[in-house]
Structure formats: structure tokens, C-alpha cells
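From: lab user (bench 3)
To: helpdesk
Subject: output format question, protein + flavin-adenine dinucleotide

Hello, I'm new to running complex predictions and I'm not sure whether the block I got back is the full result or only part of it. Here's what I submitted:
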Amino acid sequence: MAEILDRQIDHDLVRPTPRSETTTLRAGKRVGETALHRVVVVGGGAAGLELVTRLGDRLGRRSRASVTLIDSARTHLWKPLLHSVAAGSIDSGEYEVNYLAQAHWHGFRYHFGEMIGLDRERKEVRLAATVDEEGRQITPLRSVGYDTLVMAIGSVTNDFGTRGVAKYAVPLETPAQAERFNRRLVNACLRAQTQPGPVRPGQLHVAIVGAGATGTELAAELYRTTREVVAYGLDRIDPERDIRIVLIEAAKRILPGLPQRISKATQRLLDQIGVEVRTGAKVKEVTAQGLTLADGSFIASELVVWAAGVKAPDVLGRLDGLETNRINQLVVEPTLQTTRDPAIFAIGDCAACPRPGSSAPVPPRAQAAHQEASHMAHQIERRLRGQTLRPYAYRDFGSLVSLGRWSTVGNLMGFLSGRSIFVAGLFARVMYLSLRIMHERAIGGTPRAVLSLLARALAHRAGPPVKLH
Ligand SMILES: Cc1cc2nc3c(=O)[nH]c(=O)nc-3n(C[C@H](O)[C@H](O)[C@H](O)COP(=O)(O)OP(=O)(O)OC[C@H]3O[C@@H](n4cnc5c(N)ncnc54)[C@H](O)[C@@H]3O)c2cc1C
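Helpdesk reply: Thanks, we reran it on our side. This is the complete output you should expect:
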């Protein structure tokens, strides 16, 4: 591994000569030049990893272009799985994709590092140096040259400047954060089991701020997994008395972005399970003991998850004059090209892509990331052939909310009728799973996706249904 990283660093240190955007591109090569066209994708998430895998297979392997992925992480975990990692229902290791291996199998290069800047004149992305746990440098500060650049660095949690969130609440943006929350939860149960006195009020309470799909799904899943952890011999904890899951939402109803019918059905299910829901409740401050709401009331809770909205990473606001909106997203044309630089594209959560007939841009969702990755792959091939780029049009297939073993509810768009159809139960569950399977197929092919599915089903039968460490 060290050898592969070293080779990549040498390659990066060679600064590419600046080239003009108007140079004609043909079959991946510039007229009069032998150098391959360099496609660089920053961010290997739901959108970026699908894109580089496809480009690597179609262009990289056939030496039609050089395809490179830059990511600040070494592995990819599909983000919609994070709430299950936080709840302890799944082990992230079983679902992670290693970037070096993926690059090796699919004909692209991988550079480990965080993008910290951009030089549009020189056509270079700047990467921060990386260091290990002992403070030793892994990769130096460096620049990677591009001819076509695709930004796909996703989104981060938006705490809207609320006091105490950064210190006391856990966001769910990365596998490390989801695992950290799960460890806090299991530790809290172990502590309660062995401490001399009784369980304190708030000690085993979880407050989830934000009742969008992430917060709602986490609440339902946590209700089950906390009881399962306790069932493994933690007999000093009484789940009915000591454990409390509270879902807090500033809007008038949960799932405010989804149709009212889904919101009502989900609220009914949460009521049945025993998850407490507080709507119309704005959080003013988070402390080690709990949350203070705008109306002055206090919710005791030593475990707080913040899932109340997203924004694009701050670095996008410092990218050599590229246009951003109020939540830092790169503003793009319908072709997915950034408004101020046609050689730079943006896809996924970090892009503000116009949606015909709507004042809001394409929503930050996995299905949009999947569609944009697929459209982008075609755009790059067209660009290499010197053809006109095509506009991207988002197709909303509906939204599904999984409440773990209790149910899955949502709406699917009927394309013939153009109307939204309410779905629930097993059919909805299968549709919910199909989005993840589509992603796994896009990055590993059908045989690997099926094999992983079977392997995980077997592994789940062999161990406890919840993570206990
Ligand atoms: C807990 C949770 C549950 C969700 N559930 C659903 C769901 O059920 N359905 C749905 O449609 N959507 C869901 N979403 C939203 C969905 O996951 C996102 O819309 C989707 O992942 C966006 O894909 P992306 O490629 O734009 O970004 P991401 O998947 O976030 O990938 C971004 C990548 O960029 C890398 N990166 C970030 N900054 C840098 C940098 N400076 N330099 C280099 N690399 C960088 C990151 O390491 C990451 O690999 C959920 C999101 C969360 C957090």
C-alpha cells in the first residue's frame, strides 16, 4: 500500500502545463498531443464513486482518458446506511468499499487527500497534507492537474449556529461519527449497569433533532436496538422506565418535505412504537445534560443526534471565484457545468442544479446523486468527442421512509398518471432496498452486488442482531 501511495505522490508533484479550454478534444486525446485527457472527480460518495467507476471502466481501461478520484476518506460507505450504523443494526465494515481496491479493479487512480483549494488558471486542485494518528505525514501538500473537473463532495450537517451543537451533539455525516454515536450509546448502557446508584433522568435518553427521513428512521431503529442491547444481560436497566427516544422537529409536522399522508402514517407508527415526537419545537441550546427549546422548556438527554438540515462544505465558497448559493452549493447550469467555468462540473449534494418548473433546485438525495452520476458519465464522453452537452432533468421516483422492522412507508411516482401513489409494507420495503442495490450494482456490477447481499444475510444470522461493542 505504501508503495502505491508513493507512486501516486510522484505523479502529483509533476505540475501540468496550463492548457486552454478551447483546445479541441478528440477521442480522449488533444490534437497534436499524446497526453490523455485528465478527468478528475473530487469526492467518492453516492455520486462520485458511481461516476469514476463508470468512467474508469469505459475510458480509463481503454486508455481513452485518465480518470482520477480524490477523496479525504479511504473507504466509501453509502450515506443512507449511516443511521443503521449509529443505531448498531449494521457493522459499517461489511458495507464499506475500499477506494484503492475499487480504483485497481475499475481502471481509475485514487488520491487520498482533502481538497482545500483550486487554481482555475493552472487547472489544479490543491490537496492538504495528510497525517496519521501519531502525527506522521502520510501524503504531502500537493496539487493535482485536470482538464475536466467534477466536484462531488456532498454535504455536511447545518447546525444553523445553534449553541452547543458542535460540542455536545453528534452529527451523522461520516461512518466515524455514526460509530462514535453507537459507542456512546453502548457505553451509556454499560455505565448504567455498573454504576452504584440508579439510572439518572436523561442518562439513557436520546434526543434526535430534525424529523426528516434521517432523524425519523434513526428514531425507529434506535427504539429497537436499545432494547436489544439491554436484553443481553443488562438487567439493572428497565427499558420502559429508563430509555426514552425523543424526536424534535421545528416544523409543524414530521417529514415536512414529504407529502402529508406519509407524515401522518409515520407519526401513527412512531406513536404505536413509543417514540416521543415534539413538533413545532425549535432547539435553542444543547448542553451535556440535554436541550433547551425556544419556549424555554428543557428536555433531559445525555445523547443528542443533530440531523436538522444540510449545507455544502465551506471549502466550496473558496474555490477561485466559482459561484455558490446561500448554503455553499456550487451553482450549475442544466448541463451540470458550473456557471463560471465550463471545464468544472458539480453533481450530488454539493450542486445547486436547476429543476425545470420548480423554484427549488434538485433535492440533495441519493436518487439525484445516482441520476446525475449517470448523466455526467455521458457528458464526459460527449465532451471528449467534442459534441454538445445535454441538459440534465431530475426524475423524482418518490420517497420512502424505513421504520425498521415495523414498516416502510412512502410514495412512488406513477409516470403514466404523473400522480404520487402511497405505498407501505413489504412492497415499500423492497423498493426502499432497491435504491441501495442500484448503487451497489453501479459500483460493483450485478454478481458482486448479489454476492454481498447473500454474504451479509448469512453474517447477520451468525451473530447478535445488534452491535454490542
Ligand atoms: C444519515 C443519512 C441518511 C440518508 N438517507 C437517505 C435516503 O434514505 N434516501 C435518499 O435519497 N437520500 C438519503 N440521504 C442523502 C444521501 O445520502 C445523499 O444525498 C447522497 O449521499 C449524496 O451523494 P454525494 O455523492 O453528493 O455526497 P456523499 O455521498 O456525501 O459523498 C461525498 C464524498 O466527498 C468526500 N469529501 C467531502 N469533502 C471532501 C474534500 N474537501 N476533499 C475530498 N473529498 C471530500 C467525502 O469523504 C465523501 O466520500 C441520507 C443522508 C444521510 C446523512
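A quick orientation on your result: Residues 42-48, 70-73, 76, 79-80, 82-83, 114-115, 152-154, 172, 213-214, 313, 315, 348-350, 364-367, 369 surround flavin-adenine dinucleotide (CB under 6 Å). Let us know if anything else is unclear.
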